[in-house]
Amino acid sequence: MITEQVMARYDREGYAILDQVVPSESLGRVQESYEETIEAALSLGLAPLDEATGFLEGYRFQNPHHPSLARRPLMEALGAPAIMAFAQRLCGEDAAMHGVAAFAMNEEYDYRSSWHRDSYFAWGKDSPTERRLREVERLPATQVLVALEDDASFWYVPGSHNRANTAEEEEGYDEGISGWDAETVRPGAVQVRLEAGSAAPFDARGIHRGLKGPGVRRRSLFIIYGDAGLAAESSVVSDWAREPEYADPAWLDSLPEPFRRSMERTMAALREA
Ligand SMILES: O=C(O)CCC(=O)C(=O)O
After folding, report:
1. SS3 (DSSP) at 253
2. How many domains in the chain?
3. Whose C-alpha lies nearest to ligand 1, atom 7?
4. Rg from Cα positions in the chain
5. Which end of the chain is more exposed for a tag (fewer CB within 10 A), N or C?
């Protein structure tokens, strides 16, 4: 159940914590299917392979829900009841699954992304759409970080999701890297600590970054839910929904509900766009 306190925190701060969206009794199976998904993605060329390490090149790959990868336990985690309930509170019953990325890093990987707002990537900083959506109080879209192992890599500036940059933020913004220098400590930023099996939905218009030093492993997912119209209009992660293999009825039948319907809405919206 999504409490009023959870929604109030999301509205106020731009993110919230959903504890144990993957129940502890299923976590082992979900972790196993995540590892199998990475191996399959690497061997099928659906994720970039780093020849030197035999693991992922970089820190992420898109579309772990691809029909030739999708493992049932992982699909159940992506469409976990608490995540779906949260998405529906925000976007209505017709919440659509815009896209998924797996963020997998081994201990040696040093990951320091820049501070950024995803809205700048999606619509362009100061574009008419970005300006129109910048101060909407509650955007009907959310990005959900799902931690399959304990995760302390996500940093967020609470309350930055529905306001323009402060003068200081505007001053420090670097057009070249589409964000703010990675080494700068943002005033008021918080480190979001998630236990394995928990999730953090966040408004990706807010200023955020990922940071993982050597010695720590990361096994997480980012899944975007939102209004289907928004996916058709602007989501940069919904290209999968145009690919014919995702419309295979046998594969769709193998997916848990309501995750399946949330994907079909994105596919329908992109077909009509
Ligand atoms: O790695 C993270 O925790 C942040 C990811 C991120 O910045 C993004 O998905 O836009």
Report:
1. helix
2. 1
3. 209
4. 18
5. N
At 142, is the secondary structure helix, strand, or coil?
Answer: strand
Q: Across the strands, what pairs with 202?
A: 15, 143
Using most ligand atoms within 8 A of CB, pick from 222, 224, 235 the residue to mutate for ligand 1. 222
Task: Classify strands 111-112 and 208-212 as parallel, antiparallel or unpaired.
Answer: antiparallel
- What CATH number corresponds to the domain at position 142? 2.60.120.620
- Of ligand 1's listed atoms, the one at least distance from the Cα of 113 is 7
User: What is the residue with the minimal CA distance to atom 4 of ligand 1?
Assistant: 210
Residue-level pLDDT, tens digit, the chain, 273 residues: 899 999 999 999 999 999 999 999 999 999 999 999 999 999 999 999 999 999 999 999 999 999 999 999 999 999 999 999 999 999 999 999 999 999 999 999 999 999 999 999 888 999 999 999 999 999 999 999 999 999 999 999 999 999 999 999 999 898 877 789 877 778 899 999 999 999 999 999 999 999 998 999 999 999 999 998 877 777 778 999 999 999 999 999 999 999 999 999 999 999 887
CB 196 within 8 A of CB 150: yes
**Domain membership of residue 121 as a residue range:** 4-272
Contact between 174 and 180 (Cβ < 8 Å): yes
Ligand 1 geometric centre to CA of 253 (Å):
31
pTM equals 0.96
User: How many Cα atoms are found within 13 Å in the side-chain-facing hemisphere of 125?
Assistant: 15
